[in-house]
Every structure is written in C-alpha cells, then in structure tokens.
TrEMBL record:
The keyword Repeat does not apply. SUPFAM superfamilies: PLP-dependent transferases. This is Probable glycine dehydrogenase (decarboxylating) subunit 2. One of its GO terms (biological process) is glycine decarboxylation via glycine cleavage system. It comes from Peribacillus cavernae. The glycine cleavage system is composed of four proteins: P, T, L and H. In this organism, the P 'protein' is a heterodimer of two subunits. It catalyses: N(6)-[(R)-lipoyl]-L-lysyl-[glycine-cleavage complex H protein] + glycine + H(+) = N(6)-[(R)-S(8)-aminomethyldihydrolipoyl]-L-lysyl-[glycine-cleavage complex H protein] + CO2. It comes from the Bacteria. Belongs to the GcvP family. C-terminal subunit subfamily. Its cofactor is pyridoxal 5'-phosphate. Pfam families: GcvP2_C, GDC-P. The glycine cleavage system catalyzes the degradation of glycine. The P protein binds the alpha-amino group of glycine through its pyridoxal phosphate cofactor; CO(2) is released and the remaining methylamine moiety is then transferred to the lipoamide cofactor of the H protein.
Length: 485
C-alpha cells in the first residue's frame, strides 16, 4: 500500500483538478434557474473532492482491497451461503439482449427473455416440488411476505378470518417473525428441544383454530434437519393451517429432498444465495415463491405463461394478491440463477449438496475439540459452535470474530441463533477447497489457544486492519457520513 491508499479522498483533493474531459458544448447552455424552482437550488457549491481520473480509480481500488468479499477470501457467514459466483453468470447477464431490454418492450420482441423466465419457473418447480412459481419478489424477506399474503388470501377466500397467528420456531431466521408481522399476523414462538429441533409437544400446545401457518426452515438455522417434518406437517394441516418453507438456503437439500414432498404449501428461495447471485452490500436479490396448486390463483400478477410456443405475461388473474414489485422481478439475478442451474445440470446440483454437507461436517468435527459443540449430531450445510469455554477465560465470541480479521477471514455469523449462548454459526459452502477449510480451522485453533495463553491478543483484536476495534453501537448509530476538516 502506498501513502495515498491510507488517505481520504478529501485529503488528496487539489483545487481545480478534474477527473473528466467533455467535448465542447454544441448546444445552448441552460441555466439551473430555468429548470429548478429557486428553493431547491443550493446557495453554496457542494464540497466535493477535486481529483484526477487516476486518483479516483486508485482510491476505489484501494477501498475495494480493504473489503472482504467472496472473490477475495473465505467467507463462512452462516445462513448467508457466501459461495463462489461463477463468472459465466456475469457474461450471460451482460448479453445485450438481456442487459439492454426494457420492461415496456412488446412481448413479441422479448420472447427469449420471457422464455428464460418461464424455463426458470419450471426448473424451480422441479427443484422445490411445488406446482407454480412467481419470480417477482426481490429478496428472501420479500418472498416470505408474498407467501404469507397468499396464505392470508387463501384463508380469507374460505371465510376463515379467525386465523391470525403464524407459528415460528425460536431458531428461525429473524426475517420470519418480521415478515409475519408486516403481513398483519401475530407471531407465536415454538420452542426447540434439546436436540435443536422443533419441540413437537410445544407445537401441539400452540397450534389451534387461529393458526394461519407454521414458518419453518429445514434444515433449521442450527444446520439440523427437522426429522419430524412429516409429523409437523400433519399437526399443522389437520388444524387447518398452511406450512411455509423458508428455503433461503437450499444448499443442504438441493436435488436430494424437496419441500413440496415434505408437505409444504409455500416456499421461497434466495437465488442470491444457493443459486449464486452475488449478494452482500444490499445488492439486488431474487426471492421466488413456489406454491401448491390450491394457492396458484393468489400468486402475484403478471405470471410468465406459455401458449402454443408463445410466451406472455398473464395478467388475467382475478384472485391474485396483485403486483409485489414493479415490472417482473430482478431479471438480471434471475438470468444468473438460470445460467447456474443450466450449467450445473442435475448431477452438478446434487454434488453441490453433497460437498456443502461434507465440508460443514468436516469443519465441525475438526473444531469440536477446541470449542463447545451444543448439538453433537451430523449437521447439514452449516453448524453452530459455542464460545462458552472461551467466555470463561474472558474472551467473548465477538473477540474471536474480531481476531479472525487478523487472519484475513470474514467472521462467521455470531450471536445467532439466539437459543445458543455465545453462538458462532459457520457455513463453509461447497465451493471451498480442503486447503482453504484447513487454513481456517488452523486459525480457529490458534485463537482458541490464544484465549487460554494470551487472551489480551484476542480481546484487543483486530491488530492488522486499517480501522481497529470499533464501538459497534456507535458505528451503527452515528456513522461518519462526511469528512470533516
Ligand atoms: C438470508 C435469509 C433470509 C432473508 O433473505 P433476504 O434476501 O436477506 O431478505 C431469510 N431466511 C433465511 C433462513 C436466510 O438465510
């Protein structure tokens, strides 16, 4: 790194320096006063850095090197499936006919794009075991809300307006209770048992004539497969409720088991996780929702449909819950997911699952002597450890996460799920080599040793990053938005 890498863009600003060159204007100049009402015009010029094109290039390149990303290093963020995003996906998404079409183009001239969407729907129907799929929702949480709105519409269509409650296990992803609340339901929590699975007795206790649905992740956020899923489906269905599958992370069951076959009525997928859409930083996502036949009529409109070899947007859906997103979903992410599914093929997708599960179990077993393993069972695509032992030595899980930064790793998800003390939730994904897994394991083992021998090294970490330990609350509540001279 040179000196400039450490500077703020404002510090390298030189008055009068510009980073662009425009041709001489060949139209009449228009003054800002002619375009904007006076109250919207600033009195003083904005304080902007003045730098050359090369300066700005180096500035952003330097910043990008300070970031963690899947392309720069191992990223074991549990429940986020930070796997490699194959670059062929990007090439395909950039094909002119995909990248530069407009949502208002005539259907006759975008048949290829519509066919891709239709085909993707068909693939997702096959993968999930559902009867129909919408590609509209823009993220996982958006898919949850869309699915719950359909469940709501279903109950209302049956005159069943007393179903006001959605049951959510205590190990559920935080978006589940949030989506249920936004969809107008009351959330009821069901406990996990000592094996980390939904407690069936507790489920029987909370289910009733007011149950609209059970929202479930399987494998759950502890990385464990809900073995009693058929019995749970029976409990919910016989009470008149619907079964919702949070399929954000399908890595553990892809091509092996299908939510539709387990008895689920609605499922959402995160194409930006399992199906290699790039994510993180709040970029566009895609959260398609699949439903069983009795819910098809409530799907958002339009739905991509086909008749006699012609593809079209079907708006003729009188019972639809309506549109949930402008236009037709995040098309670019859907193109990437489609490319991934087609380039992997059925055998490739099966191998994804097998390797994701093997990698997670390998890592879990190798780390188990050094950290507490709250649920000593085979895991699926991810697992949780507890930093309880280290906490007794004065080293918290937050410290362990910070120390990992010194080794160049993005930390795992920490303090989630909430039902495990000092939780670390690790998801290696299938795209990492054994050497990468081993190097991370060695780092974790060294940190466990440091916690015993030199705890202050861990407590004061990170030592090698540009910014040292942050006050997390202050950093979130009062971010530095602007450089102050
Ligand atoms: C990521 C995730 C979600 C939310 O997905 P977003 O696209 O971030 O809205 C929901 N459930 C689970 C289990 C997840 O891992």
């Amino acid at each position: 790194m040179n000196n400039q890498d450490q500077s703020l863009i404002f510090e390298i600003s030189t008055p009068g320096r510009i980073g662009f060159s425009l041709p001489e204007m060949d139209v009449e100049a228009v003054s800002i006063e002619d375009i904007l009402p006076a109250e919207y015009i600033r009195e003083e010029a904005a304080e902007l850095p003045e730098v050359s094109e090369l300066d700005i290039m180096r500035h952003y390149t330097a910043l990008s090197h300070r970031n963690h990303g899947v392309d720069s290093g191992f990223y074991p963020l549990g429940s986020c499936t930070m796997k490699y995003n194959p670059k062929i996906n990007e090439n395909v998404a950039r094909i002119n006919g995909f990248a530069h079409i407009h949502p208002y183009q005539d259907e006759a001239v975008v048949q290829g794009a519509l066919e891709l969407m239709y085909d993707l729907q068909e693939h997702l129907i096959e993968i999930t075991g559902m009867d129909q799929v919408t590609l509209q929702p823009a993220a996982g949480a958006h898919g949850e809300w869309t699915g719950l709105m359909m469940i709501r519409a279903f109950h209302e269509a049956n005159g069943d307006s007393a179903r006001t409650k959605v049951i959510v296990p205590d190990s559920a992803h935080g978006t589940n209770p949030a989506s249920a609340t936004v969809a107008g339901f009351e959330t009821v929590t069901v406990k996990s048992n000592e094996y980390g699975l939904v407690d069936l007795e507790d489920l029987k206790r909370v289910v009733g004539p007011d149950t609209a649905a059970l929202m479930l992740t399987n494998p759950n956020t502890l990385g464990l497969f809900e073995e009693n899923i058929l019995e749970m489906a029976e409990i919910i269905h016989s009470a008149g409720g619907k079964l919702y599958y949070d399929g954000a992370n399908l890595n553990a069951v892809l091509s092996k088991a299908r939510p539709g076959d387990m008895g689920f009525d609605v499922v959402h997928l995160n194409l930006h996780k399992t199906f290699t859409g790039p994510h993180g930083g709040g970029g566009p996502g895609s959260g398609p929702v699949g439903v069983k036949s009795e819910l098809i009529r409530f799907l958002p409109k339009p739905l991509v449909a086909e008749k006699d070899g012609t593809f079209f947007l079907d708006y003729d859906r009188p019972e639809s819950i309506g549109r949930v997103k402008p236009y037709y979903g995040n098309f670019g992410i859907n193109v990437r997911a489609y490319t991934y599914i087609r380039s992997m093929g059925p055998d490739g997708l099966k191998a994804v699952t097998e390797n994701a599960v093997i990698n997670a179990n390998y890592m879990m077993r190798r780390l188990a002597p050094f950290y507490d393993l709250p649920f000593d069972r085979h895991c699926k695509h991810e697992f949780v450890l507890s930093g309880k032992r280290q906490k007794k030595l004065g080293v918290r899980t937050l410290d362990i996460a910070k120390r990992l930064l010194d080794f160049g790793y993005h930390p795992p998800t920490i303090y989630f799920p909430l039902n495990v003390e000092e939780c670390m939730m690790i998801e290696p994904t299938e795209t990492e080599s054994k050497e990468t897994l081993d190097a991370f394991i060695e780092a974790m083992i060294q940190i466990a040793k440091e916690a015993e021998e030199t705890p202050e090294i861990v407590q004061e970490a990170p030592h090698t990053t540009v910014i040292k330990r942050l006050d997390e609350t202050l950093a979130a509540r009062k971010p530095v938005l602007r450089y102050q001279a």
